[in-house]
Design a protein that fits this description.
alpha/beta
């Protein structure tokens, strides 16, 4: 078992917060919103950080890494949970020595406002249009998930998606 003392998270539409709650329950750790972290959680306190992905960028990651002793990063996004997505996040956010796990959360466009809502609508249009142009039997499982995510605001949050994180925490990987 790792010497982690808390979980910190940054959430926009609620998916990351729900993952923080699920993980806290599984690991028996306290969890805090990045906007309300108590003063006793500081640069010496080993923590797990969860944050959402927007255009391959981790929200508040740079601030988190400066202020806290992050032992693990969990990125929550709407892209398929695969190595390509994970590697893209690692490169775009310059994550070198900290382990990173990626879990699929979803999109809830009703909770986005202004520029973020506009960006998501543009991304959705650009991503779904070529998929919808394909014949039904040519669409991959990842593409079907993408359509469900962007068109139906599908939610993928579940404790099963955290199984590798739990193994890491228990020193099983």
């Amino acid at each position: 078992m790792k010497n982690i003392k808390a979980i910190i998270y940054k959430s926009k539409a609620g998916h990351t917060k729900r993952y923080a709650e699920l993980l806290a329950e599984e690991l028996k750790l306290p969890y805090y919103s990045f906007d309300e972290i108590p003063l006793d959680i500081n640069k010496q306190t080993p923590v797990i950080a969860l944050t959402y992905v927007m255009a391959n960028s981790l929200s508040k990651y740079k601030k988190m890494i400066k202020k806290y002793n992050i032992q693990l990063v969990i990125a929550v996004g709407s892209s398929p949970a695969n190595e390509e997505t994970k590697n893209s996040i690692i490169i775009n956010n310059k994550i070198n020595s900290i382990p990173l796990f990626y879990v699929k959360g979803g999109i809830d466009q009703t909770k986005l406002k202004g520029f973020e809502r506009f960006i998501i609508k543009m991304i959705a249009k650009n991503i779904t249009k070529p998929i919808l142009a394909k014949h039904e039997n040519e669409i991959t499982m990842d593409e079907k998930e993408t359509l469900e995510t962007f068109i139906n605001n599908k939610d993928y949050v579940c404790v099963e998606n955290l199984k590798e994180v739990i193994k890491w925490y228990n020193n099983e990987i």
